[in-house]
Amino acid sequence: MDLLERVAATGLLEPARPVVVLVSGGRDSVCLLDVAVALSGADAVRALHVNYGLREAADGDEAHCVALGERLGIPLEVHRAARPDDATGNLQAWARDARYGAAARLAAAAGAAARVAAAHTATDQAETILYRLAASPGRRALLGMPMRSGRLVRPLLGITREETAAWCRARGLEWREDATNATDRYARGRVRGGLVPALRAVHPAAERNVVRTADLLRDEAEVLDVVVDTALAGRDRIAVDHLAALPRALARLIVRRLAERATGAFCARAAGRLDDILTLGDGALDLGDGARAIVDGGVLRCERTPRLPARPT
Questions:
Q1: What integer pLDDT is reported at residue 211 of this predicted model?
Q2: Among 198, 205, 13, CA closest to 117
Q3: Which residues does 69 contact at the CB level (< 8 Å), separation at least 6?
Q4: pTM, full prediction
Q5: pLDDT class for 299, splitting at 50, 70, 90?
Q6: pLDDT higher than threshold 70 for residue 309
Q7: pLDDT: is 184 or 13 the higher one?
């Protein structure tokens, strides 16, 4: 089965279904845009390029994407995102939010059925899993990126970076190389430049094996979620004695579920506080990630950690 057939088999790019393709100018996004035209039809496809203005090559990337859109007969919108001077936090996170925010607006304008397609590949998936496994414990680190999350789809998640390059060469499509991908300045770059090649040296199918493992674990995670739902029976609390009597793995998952319900965000560290919760007695315990456990009358519930009061001026 060739690349086009494998992407078509995902069902994420459907004939005539509107889709906004995120295009950086790199090999993966160039491949995705060409494949989207083939599977969805040119009339259904729009492209989005975000120029962050952070690199000297940024304007060249933009020009390349504009030319690619013209060649494929696809309307391409350029969004220029300027990071505020007073912005704080992770630069990559800001860029990601800017990209997906612009894509969501464009997709909304195309109709309720429109999707946003990102060009993450099996290689990206393997790098993501390895990075998360090193940076945070827990099974969620091994699940990687889903093929579909709301409007967002990742049709190339079963395709390697080498395969997207081969597709572009065969189709006579040029791409741009981002020099920052090869630097070890960021953790992802260190995984890409050091860890992934080391795994390939151990086994040539290392990336596919990591991705396949993530697929299997994601299926199994759905079963675990059902087990947790059954144990909680729709409640937002549980008796500590009952929690202590459960298998430890299930008890940890329940603690994490209660913390994440309370905060509406991932609480990777909550499960690690199980023993502390079981010996707490009545009281409160910080779980990290903005959650805290409250035991009252032998019953555990979770809530958001209150903000510290403002310092007097």
A1: 82
A2: 13
A3: 23, 33, 47, 75, 76
A4: 0.76
A5: very high
A6: no
A7: 13
Domains 3-210 and 235-304 share a fold: no
β partners of residue 285: 293
* Residue spans of alpha helices (H) in the chain: 3-10, 27-40, 58-72, 91-110, 122-135, 161-171, 187-190, 196-202, 206-232, 240-245, 248-263, 274-278
CATH 3.40.50.620 is right for the domain spanning 3-210: yes
214 or 1, which is more confident: 214
- The SS3 call for residue 249 is helix
Q: Which of 69-83, 180-194, 200-214, 226-240 has the highest mean pLDDT?
A: 226-240
Look at residue 304 and give its three-state secondary structure.
strand
Domain range list for the chain? 3-210, 235-304
End-to-end CA distance of the chain: 68
Residue that has been written with the tokens 């560290």 in this structure = 269
pLDDT tens for 162-184 read 999 999 999 999 999 876 666 66
Assigned token pair, 222: 């759905």
Q: Specify whether domain 235-304 bears CATH 3.30.499.
A: no
Nearest to 60 by CA among 186, 175, 167, 189: 175
